[in-house]
């Protein structure tokens, strides 16, 4: 396999941060610094300029990064070819997912895939959609699964794999719980609990605008950064929220919360993100097909 020092250098050069490289490689920062120092000593030249807490590449560092990229890409292609020839999948599968996907959609998929392929070790990274797509683009991840359509681009391939319905969620005693469906106009008549950022909020604002409702008029009573906090507010009957149906299955099964569909329905896409075809591993292809099949099944 490629020289570990070269892999560490490439991560640091791509991120222009030893700290971020350490996080991506699951190493300590001193270990990253040591590997890069070893490589600099091997080549007899400095590869990074370090000043005021920032790092940048020297001209020699730029050259080494160019070659490192080609070497690592060739090795990835070799692994891909060999995996395609093998009848048994094995090794680490680096998956990225957004929090809702990771917590509420992926666990049964990962469990079933692991049963089918016991020699595969999934490694899951959780972050927002843009970060996951960037990590796929940088080939830090083999595959990403996110809500939304993805940005795409020359180095990232985007495939729609499933749909995720967003619904009105509230306590059984909340006024909206008695409705069969809820219209955008109904949402203006009751206090709302929302996340302070994220794809659901942007999607809801777009949904209201399309329905002729000014998103600024939504009576936002709570802005919370954790889904567990939102659920706690809802269970006490203080507000409603727009959430993924998948995210409240446990609470609805216990009768703590109810889910009421919107009219018209509010659906968001779930998307697979791959590196460009040249760098898509055989294992990632197999997992992507497997995940798309499971996630598209009604539950």
UniProtKB/TrEMBL annotation:
Q: Does the keyword Signal apply?
A: no
The chain positions of domain HTH lysR-type read 1-58
The UniProt GO MF terms for this protein read: DNA-binding transcription factor activity; transcription cis-regulatory region binding
**Highest taxon above the source species:** Bacteria
**Pfam families in alphabetical order:** HTH_1, LysR_substrate
Q: PROSITE patterns under this entry?
A: HTH_LYSR
Matching InterPro entries: LysR_HTH_N, LysR_subst-bd, WH-like_DNA-bd_sf, WH_DNA-bd_sf
The alphabetical list of record keywords is: DNA-binding, Transcription, Transcription regulation
Q: Which residues form the signal peptide?
A: none
Q: Which family does it belong to?
A: Belongs to the LysR transcriptional regulatory family.
Name of the protein in question: Transcriptional regulator, LysR family
Q: Please name the source species.
A: Methyloversatilis universalis (strain ATCC BAA-1314 / DSM 25237 / JCM 13912 / CCUG 52030 / FAM5)
């Amino acid at each position: 396999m490629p020289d570990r020092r070269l892999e560490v250098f490439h991560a640091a050069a791509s991120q222009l941060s030893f700290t971020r490289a350490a996080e991506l490689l699951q190493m300590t920062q001193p270990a990253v610094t040591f590997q890069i120092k070893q490589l600099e000593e091997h080549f007899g030249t400095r590869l990074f300029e370090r000043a005021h807490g920032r790092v940048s590449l020297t001209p020699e560092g730029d050259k080494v990064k160019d070659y490192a990229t080609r070497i690592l890409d060739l090795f990835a292609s070799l692994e891909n070819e060999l995996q395609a020839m093998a009848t048994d999948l094995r090794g680490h599968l680096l998956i990225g997912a957004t929090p809702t996907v990771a917590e509420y959609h992926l666990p049964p998929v990962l469990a079933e895939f692991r049963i089918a392929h016991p020699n595969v070790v999934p490694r899951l990274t959780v972050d927002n959609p843009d970060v996951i797509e960037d990590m796929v683009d940088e080939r830090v991840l083999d595959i990403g699964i996110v809500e939304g359509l993805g940005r795409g681009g020359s180095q990232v391939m985007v495939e729609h794999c499933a749909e995720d319905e967003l619904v009105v969620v509230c306590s059984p005693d909340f006024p909206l719980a008695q409705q069969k469906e809820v219209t955008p106009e109904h949402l203006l008549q009751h206090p709302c609990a929302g996340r302070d950022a994220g794809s659901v909020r942007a999607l809801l604002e777009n949904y209201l605008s399309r329905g002729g409702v000014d998103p600024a008029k939504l009576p936002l009573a709570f802005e919370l950064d954790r889904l567990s906090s939102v659920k706690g507010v809802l269970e006490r009957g203080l507000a409603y929220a727009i959430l993924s149906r998948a995210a409240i299955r446990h609470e609805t099964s216990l009768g703590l919360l109810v889910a009421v569909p919107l009219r018209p329905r509010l659906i968001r896409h779930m998307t697979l993100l791959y590196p460009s075809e040249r760098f898509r591993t055989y294992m990632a292809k197999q997992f992507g097909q497997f995940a798309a099949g499971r996630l598209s099944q009604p539950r």
